[in-house]
């Protein structure tokens, strides 16, 4: 990711290093404080390099800010400052973790979550739902899932993201959102928390910290709104793989993947 940003937008690499206090790419695997700015930079640079003209867009969690930059709703530097703050706030919230349920329906996941005392954080794709909660509650949830013959994968994250545990982060993040300008979108951007186009960007971005990511529904909503195909702009192919499970036979491309190694 760093090579892509350094080659195509060296001023962005300099700016993110200034805001984070060090090069986030050097510590991207350590903490979301570093991962979020690094992924955001790679995503917006990839967007610029591809010269796409979509009918609509969306982003998974952090990706919403990159999508809003692409649509002209947020200026790049404003969004970068928000991302750095978001990563810092979420990185400081060491109040739990997350686990993925493999093969479980959303209904089953909700039942397991309720019994374990955790919440649904991500409805990513058919058979892939992520739960969020305290370490103790996740231990109990894993026992519940095992008893129901549901496979569990504990995620290596340092917080109960997209759950009520993130509430302390919403106040400073919402205050920072008040400081940035919001412009009319060049194309609709769908919120992952509502699976519908953003209406109140500030409120919805702040609220998304504690609300589940309804990615499966968002992809379906984009398709029903007229999107015949999808392009994943950020680093990796995770969203494309999930998309192919959500919408069988619909093209999901990852042209940005080739840019990472330029």
Automatic annotation (TrEMBL):
InterPro entries for the chain: Ac_transferase_dom_sf, Acyl_transferase_dom, Acyl_Trfase/lysoPLipase, Mal-CoA-ACP_Trans/PKS_FabD, Malonyl_transacylase_ACP-bd
GO biological process, one term: fatty acid biosynthetic process
SUPFAM superfamilies given in the database record: FabD/lysophospholipase-like, Probable ACP-binding domain of malonyl-CoA ACP transacylase
Signal peptide: none
UniProt superkingdom: Bacteria
SMART domains linked: PKS_AT
Chain ranges of the Malonyl-CoA:ACP transacylase (MAT) domain: 5-261
A UniProt-annotated Pfam family: Acyl_transf_1
GO cellular component, one term: cytosol
UniProt GO molecular function: [acyl-carrier-protein] S-malonyltransferase activity
Name of the protein: ACP S-malonyltransferase
Record organism: Solirubrobacter ginsenosidimutans
Lineage of the species this protein comes from: Bacteria, Bacillati, Actinomycetota, Thermoleophilia, Solirubrobacterales
């Amino acid at each position: 990711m760093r090579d892509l940003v350094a080659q195509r937008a060296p001023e962005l690499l300099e700016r993110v290093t200034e805001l984070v206090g060090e090069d986030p790419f050097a510590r991207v695997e350590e903490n979301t404080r570093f991962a979020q700015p690094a992924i955001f930079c790679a995503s917006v640079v990839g967007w610029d390099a591809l010269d796409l003209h979509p009918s609509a867009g969306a982003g998974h969690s952090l990706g919403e800010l990159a999508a809003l930059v692409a649509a002209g709703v947020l200026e790049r530097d404003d969004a970068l400052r928000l991302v750095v703050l978001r990563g810092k706030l979420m990185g400081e919230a060491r109040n739990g973790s997350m686990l993925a349920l493999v093969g479980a329906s959303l209904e089953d996941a909700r039942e397991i979550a309720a019994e374990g005392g955790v919440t649904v954080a991500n409805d990513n794709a058919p058979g892939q739902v992520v739960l969020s909660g305290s370490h103790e509650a996740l231990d109990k949830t894993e026992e519940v899932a095992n008893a129901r013959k549901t496979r569990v994968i504990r995620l290596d994250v340092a917080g109960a993201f997209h759950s009520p545990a993130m509430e302390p982060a919403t106040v400073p993040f919402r205050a920072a959102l008040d400081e940035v300008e919001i412009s009319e979108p060049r194309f609709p951007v769908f919120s992952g928390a509502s699976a519908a186009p953003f209406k109140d960007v500030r409120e919805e971005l702040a609220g998304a910290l504690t609300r589940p990511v309804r990615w499966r529904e968002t992809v379906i909503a984009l398709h029903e709104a007229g999107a015949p195909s999808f392009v994943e702009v950020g680093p990796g192919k995770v969203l494309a793989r999930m998309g192919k499970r959500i919408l069988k036979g619909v093209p999901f491309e990852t042209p940005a993947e080739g840019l990472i190694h330029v």
